[in-house]
Specification:
178 residues; alpha+beta; 2 domains; four-stranded antiparallel sheet; 30% helix; elongated; binds zinc ion
């Protein structure tokens, strides 16, 4: 019920004015059932919101749930950025991912909280994303990261077919801890 309500609410946010108007409406709703449903729906779409999102003004919650930073323009189809970077945790230089954009270190599996929607580089947090879980299912490893600064969690696919693939031993190590 509230899932449907969350979906229809999100579908109605097309402009900043919509977010403002519907956000104000959301602020007037009693309880947090609908807010929780919005956060869950955002997660289902690949947008992880931090726990404190429950307390955000409705306008901000709606925009961020849609992967739109307050300062960013509407971005429904982010272009993933593939680039080399020095790992913020182990300092090794991480090579290009190739077919799939590289967003974490293949050796220590850490990343940086720089994306709102995976690959868009639109987050302003910049915290260290620590691998806290790994799961192997349907022939594919999935990593779970938690931001050391804001606590946001997100799941990303491990890179297994790149020239420098994610270290299988590191993945198994995280899996055994998580
Ligand atoms: Zn590293
Ligand atoms: Zn963060």
């Amino acid at each position: 019920m509230s899932t449907e309500e969350a979906k229809s609410l999100l579908a109605r946010v097309r402009t900043r004015a919509d977010a403002k108007k519907l956000g104000r409406w959301l602020d007037e709703q009693p309880g947090d059932t609908l807010r929780r449903a919005i956060i869950a729906e955002a997660r289902a779409r690949g947008v992880e919101l931090p726990p404190q999102a429950l307390e955000w003004p409705g306008k901000r919650l709606l925009r961020r749930a849609l992967g739109r930073d307050a300062a960013a323009q509407v971005r429904s189809n982010p272009i993933a950025v593939d680039e080399t970077f020095a790992c913020a945790n182990c300092a090794r230089v991480v090579p290009f991912g190739g077919r799939t954009a590289r967003n974490h270190c293949p050796w220590c599996l850490h990343s940086l909280h720089v994306d709102v929607v995976p690959g868009d580089r639109a987050a302003d947090c910049g915290g260290l994303l620590v691998p806290v879980g790994a799961k192997y299912a349907h022939g594919q490893w999935t990593l779970r990261h938690r931001c050391a600064v804001c606590g946001a969690e997100r799941r990303v696919r491990a890179l297994e077919d790149a020239e420098v693939p994610d270290d299988p031993a590191a993945l198994r190590g995280v899996a055994s801890r998580g």
